[in-house]
Design goal:
Length: about 375
């Protein structure tokens, strides 16, 4: 019998092989990265989650397709894709004559409903709209030439001019921001209620349609709130008890209050503009015991929570595509703008289950 010889594979070669194998699979994520967004948008537009919810329980494919007026074989493939990603749950059902599935809601599918308290539908519809997708095609031109801004290059106006001139897009944008507020503000109140202690009046700078302040005044009955935004946004804002809507320009003046709240606004602007906005917030609050509550992402260079870090880095890319100079900031970058705006001191607190932090700045 001949001797069997076993070659020893050097560790480095093994590692390279495994990296190669991972790359071969991982690259598909990037080739078809858009598919998840497109199919989820399709599910929202069809109203699949609403149909199951209105039914009061799981539905078979033929029940969903007849309710929605869809082609059953195409819908079957959509449902197979969505259940594979745990967006809906497929429950095996069998009768004497057939085998199949019933489809049930999951926490993720609830987020695809337009009127659910956890709805993210408007945010998905905004990000998947042709208006917001088109600028991504100009990202490399912007980075290499460092001149053209993707959104402005595509639409000949910046995001704020575009929303002012296009009421439908403005409505979609404000509804999407309301989803963001519904997600983030209760989390801040839950995790950091002290932020609102001792405040009788609060102004939300760039508050959109007032969703954030409607949540705050409900949770903190002692607070009277001002929702401050551009005229065309305020014109469409619904009436909210104990919330006064005020139109204006945050670069000129912010309405006076005991404290200012500013969420997902500063990341739209470059440092010089941020400093200007923060100075206007500082002027709006009392010198001795006022505070500005900044709800924003902090990019953690070290990154100890990979999933959240990934979302924060994606948001930074979104800022690049949709604003002229906007960016998500590291703690060092926040330190710079807050100090340059004349604040004496500040605290930073991460908010559980959200990508946001609450930075409290004191004049
Ligand atoms: C990204 S949205 C954030 C909305 C809201 N704070 C939230 O987090 O859901 C930015 C907001 O800033 C408002 N904004 C932009 N420029 C402004 C200005 N010069 N003065 C006041 N608000 C402005 C926009 O209309 C928009 O509502």
């Amino acid at each position: 019998m001949g001797e069997t010889r076993r070659e020893t594979v050097p560790a480095l070669e093994k590692e390279e092989d495994s990296e190669e194998a991972h790359a071969q699979l991982d690259i598909w994520k990037y080739i078809f990265g858009f598919v998840e967004l497109a199919v989820v948008k399709c599910a929202i537009e069809l109203g699949i989650a609403e149909a199951i919810e209105n039914n009061g329980g799981p539905m078979t494919l033929s029940e969903i397709s007849s309710t929605l007026g869809c082609d059953p074989s195409l819908l079957n493939r959509i449902m197979r894709f969505l259940t594979h990603r745990n967006i809906f749950k497929a429950i095996p059902t069998s009768t004497n004559t057939s085998h199949g599935y019933s489809y049930a809601q999951t926490p993720l599918s609830h987020r695809l409903m337009r009127n659910d308290k956890h709805s993210m539908a408007a945010l998905i519809l905004l990000e998947s709209s042709p208006v917001m997708l088109a600028p991504w095609h100009s990202l490399s031109a912007c980075v290499s030439a460092n001149s053209d801004f993707p959104f402005e290059n595509t639409h000949a106006q910046d995001l704020w001019q575009y929303t002012a001139a296009n009421p439908d897009h403005s409505n979609l944008f404000n509804d999407a921001m309301a989803c963001h507020a519904n997600l983030t503000v209760p989390a801040i109140i839950e995790d950091y209620s002290e932020a609102f202690d001792g405040i009788n009046s609060l102004v939300d700078v760039g508050g959109g349609n007032g969703t954030a302040m409607s949540i705050v005044v409900k949770a903190c009955s002692w607070i009277r709130a001002i929702n401050f935004d551009l005229q065309h946004v305020i014109d469409k804002a619904p009436e909210i008890e104990r919330v006064e809507h005020v139109a204006g320009d945050m670069f000129v003046q912010v309405p006076k209050a005991d404290a200012a709240f500013i969420m997902a606004v500063l990341h739209d602007w470059r440092d010089e503009e941020c400093i200007q906005i923060l100075k206007k917030c500082r002027e709006a609050i009392p010198k001795d015991n006022g505070r500005v509550i900044i709800a924003e992402v902090v990019i953690d260079e070290e990154g100890n929570h990979e999933k959240l870090k990934d979302i924060r880095l994606m948001l930074d890319m979104v800022m690049m595509a949709h604003t002229n100079f906007g960016k998500e900031r590291t703690l060092k970058e926040w330190d710079h703008v807050i100090k340059m705006a004349g604040f004496r001191t500040y605290t930073v607190k991460s908010i559980k289950n959200t990508v946001n932090f609450a930075i409290m700045a004191f004049p």
